[in-house]
Amino acid sequence: MLEVLRRVIQEVNSARNLDAALATMVRRIRKAMHTDVCSFYLFDKETQELVLMETIGLHSQAVGHVSLRVGEGLVGLVAEREEPLNLEDAPSHPRFRYFEATGEERYSSFLGVPIIHQRRMLGVLVVQQGEKRRYDEEDEAFLITMGAQLAGVLAHALATGSLSRPALPGGQALFTGVAASPGMAIGEVVVVAPLADLDSVPDLIPTDVEYEIVRLKEAIERVREEIRAAGERLANRISAQELALFEVYQQMLSEAALSQEVEKRIREGQWAPGALADVVRRHVQYLERVDDDYLRERAADVRDLGRRVLAHLQEETPQVPDTFPESTILVGDEISVATLGEVPRERLAGLVSVRGSSTSHVAIVARAMGVPTVLGMVDLPLPRLSGAEVVLDGHRGRLFVRPSDELKTRYESLIAEEAALVEVLEHEQDLPSETPDGHVMPLMVNTGLAIDTTVSLRKRISGVGLYRTEVPFMIAERFPSEQEQARLYRDQLESFAPLPVVMRTLDIGGDKDLPYFPIDEANPFLGWRGIRVTLDHPEVLMVQLRAMLRAAQGLDNMQILLPMVTNVDEVDDALRLLDRAIRELAEEGIVSPRPKVGVMLEVPATLYQLDALAERADFFSVGSNDLTQYLLAVDRNNPRVASLYDACHPAVLSAMARLAEESARLKKPISVCGELAGDPAGALLLMGMGFDSLSMNAPSLPRVRAAIRRVSLDAAKVLVSEILALNTPAAVRSHLFTRLSEWQLAHLLPPRD
């Protein structure tokens, strides 16, 4: 059954339109399950009805004409409950309803499964049998799997506009991912195709067909030369049988094979990379379906050849175009900062990526630039999005493809309101961050890029609460030398002097890899990251500590922060290395006083070791992002569970309140440098809990300052006591919205549904 399943999925994915995909699926399912009927009902959100869209076994004239409400009949019952229904004698079920147009009175057995995409019910998949039959567990599992596969196909069809039936007006589609940088934008998609990725090449109509054919032939010839040269180099080192594979490659590249088919596709109206991708995918899918083992293995060869030819085609094709729409939404499988730099800033309205996380380099840059960004959008049909109009919501991690006029109008209004608010708040950014009852709440910034070190910023903050030293490491092609690091750190320290700058030691691992120091782990967030990496590589940490100490000469505004601390031994080991670095520099004639050293509280274990840590550390800094994901066992960068990640979870807020209380008892300064600090409602809670300072990305400062200047410390403390009595994240957020509305501050929060 697994082999049958694999082949059905391949055929469905290779279908060029939704109708073909549906027809293929119902026919293949009926054959695989040896049943009489297979039908698909599409859910129309507007009319709240299920419409028969495809069938094999029922009357074909019923397609598009038979519809039923959710809850009506057995199909409606499956949609209502959103769970499978398996009946041996369907007509005897109290919810059975007969539809004369379908001719289904002949069938006794019924198995229906809901089709759900990202918690949204899209339709129902049904099989039926004439004689009484109890579909077994394997049958049920097979149909559920096919339903999950069809959910992806439908989502793609919605996005590409191919599902433009009356049931779904306009073909509007919604995709969700991880919100990485706040803000909203309306614009036109420009797809960035990664090098040699056949599945991500966008469809484009060629402006010069003959030119496309010429460059295709040139690319194929260059690959033939590469393979010929490789074969000659290996002639004396591999067997004749293995050498014959190079001849097979040459045959595949011959005029009669690949070139001719791709040329035909170009003449049909597809540019060379897209035509190549189409032909290679078709060959691969065919080869993977055949029964012959040898031919199945050749699928990998065809795919490899396709990638080689595509790489040469892309050498002369810019990854991004020369001209951009006025409001460009850059979309790609994985967008690099280098690609980001190729788009004129005034035209870059937003970013969307299939891969990436909220702490990736591109996300950090996007936040610094104030560009709305959503990452981890796994279901995007990249090749079909080029040129599509979209609405991007960076607050909630949403992308609306081909939005309705009503939705566009709503977001145009929200974007205008947000711009007006920014302008209003700008006028009070040089005023102190002080509550109406006189409590000063120091606001600091998180930095890591040159773009963050602006003179105007220095006048508005109390210092840098988190300087991410790993960002320069991520840009480099090797570990920066001590001198290079010292220059970078000196620039940062001088830019903000005499304000304090908290420099976090190298925090890589998890979702932050260095290209020259890859860490490949099954579960990176519970693996080798932060202080664990640098203590295992003391030579790396020593160079960094020495560079920091050199950079701080004569400024006296540097503090050091240790990330991902789990136990006291790690702090002791790091402090020993710091003392050694101070001694080594003294031997070189550079006298460096020992800076203040802090510990990041982001692993739940540290909550229970505060007394011991306080004996060693000068201050604490809570990394609320990681603390939240570890407390809730949720990878915040996984779009499938991202909705469970919530810094307003009662357990997280209770832990934060306890940390503030314990730090006060231990007389240790404590700050927060996670996203919760940059949320106006979150900032009020943290202030009420007793945190000494808040550090956030620069674009968050205006809203947080505005909230603090309008709410007294006493009111914030009352708010904390009310919130800690609540039991669910939804109740917490609802209460926060109510209170901020009463204080006439709801406009500072992200837009609500």
TrEMBL record:
It is an enzyme of class 2 (transferase). Keywords: Cytoplasm, Kinase, Magnesium, Metal-binding, Phosphotransferase system, Sugar transport, Transferase, Transport. Its main location: cytoplasm. The keyword Secreted does not apply. Coiled coil: none annotated. It catalyses: L-histidyl-[protein] + phosphoenolpyruvate = N(pros)-phospho-L-histidyl-[protein] + pyruvate. Its cofactor is Mg(2+). Pfam families: GAF (PF01590), PEP-utilisers_N (PF05524), PEP-utilizers (PF00391), PEP-utilizers_C (PF02896). NCBIfam families: PRK11061.1, PTS_I_fam. This is phosphoenolpyruvate--protein phosphotransferase. It comes from Billgrantia sulfidoxydans.
